[in-house]
């Protein structure tokens, strides 16, 4: 079960070998590249602890001696300090221009070590042995190397092609589920940008692939690498088509910078969110059908992946600041930020003709849609939490639907549980709604399905039955806190099914409010 993709760059051609148990054969595969039977390996501490002995054994089988350096794991390692440390260590090992350096790890190690090899003695050969799905399908192929700086991601680096790539798919079995799925963000990107048939294939096969089917893993890596190799052959230095590989990355890199390149957001998670946002932006600009972003998000959610800004833990900067971070992107030309947008799934293109207001609007965390894809805008709506005691205190008042009596009572209850600046953002209290565990499940499912969209029509009529209840909860929004209070409150409800929820809604254009309790549920009609 082995596949080989040839990257036929003139004078710098190399193979990408894909399949299980390649570490055991690393010596035999690398030996033809060596002038002396010696290599140096740079890895990270996590990969080294798990796999370095296996790689040593594979190299020892071909009588190749090994010296190794293990760096700290994580995106923060892609920095000046660790680059300097790596170059100094390579110099101490007396690495010559004809020697081979092995980058043994995920995308961070591949990028950093490749850059070190590019600048050491003005260019030393290196071999990529990627150990993450993300690195196997993307960063190990194509010759991009570099580090992050305070101004942004991958802004310092070089094009330096590897001499060989060994993608051992058996190693993927040791990844944590989150890390594997993060890598899947780069896999699905290929289908979205230029291969609709591959996206169809992923919709059918990705769940089994994620569950461990080795043949499917090999095929997914092969198809991804083949697409990247084809694009690199057409445009090695990213003057044209290669920019398509950055689908989702403009948003992703800004989000990574905003989260401090931390575990709050893994790179592949940012790519998945970025792809979903790129398709949403395309739909808003009339470039693709609205069904396309819905389909993209539905597949990503089915895989258990992040799809929206609200899926990122913790606070994010406002839209203007995120857009400013995008301005540091490498794709900025003549001061204009280029986006990779889509005409449909499998048909992406590069453009600088994107209205700034459209991007800012997309980045606003409060634009949501209901479960039917209809955009909803409640400008001062928020969902918060109170105690069970609060449920008992307000139940009698809600039967009358008397807003003047409800609001001060609920505000008093809420003030006991939330800091003042949060309470002050609540403009109009409509109803206190206790939720059963069954309702929580329905709302949580819908929350995963929300799209970032703005209401195009004016006014709406809602019958707050079970489905409309979901629409109201889905529209939970505060102009200062965005959708994050909704997501946090939702998580509390999921963790504590006995908790209650307080729904608030701007009633500016509401002419009639009726409510009644029946079987423990409050039914509301708003017209």
What is the topology?
Blueprint: E1 3-7, E2 14-19, H1 26-30, E3 38-44, H2 45-60, E4 65-71, H3 80-92, E5 100-105, H4 107-119, E6 125-130, H5 133-139, E7 144-149, E8 152-159, E9 164-168, H6 177-194, H7 196-211, H8 214-234, H9 249-258, H10 267-284, H11 291-302, H12 319-326, E10 339-344, E11 347-351, H13 356-363, E12 368-369, E13 375-376, E14 382-386, H14 388-398, H15 403-415, H16 420-423, E15 429-434, H17 437-448, E16 462-464, H18 466-474, H19 484-495, E17 500-504, E18 513-518, E19 521-526
Parallel strand pairs: 2-9, 3-4, 3-5, 5-6, 6-9
Antiparallel strand pairs: 1-2, 7-8, 10-11, 12-13, 14-17, 15-17, 16-19, 18-19
Helix pairs in contact: 3-4, 5-6, 5-8, 6-7, 6-8, 6-10, 7-8, 9-10, 9-12, 10-11, 12-13, 14-15, 17-18, 17-19
Q: What is the count of DSSP helices, taking H or I runs of 4+ residues?
A: 19
Kindly identify the CATH topology of the largest domain.
Rossmann fold
CATH architectural grouping of the largest domain? 3-Layer(aba) Sandwich
Question: Which spans have pLDDT < 50 for at least 5 consecutive residues?
Answer: 365-407, 409-527
Structural class: alpha/beta
Total E-strand runs: 19
Q: What is the count of distinct domains? A: 3
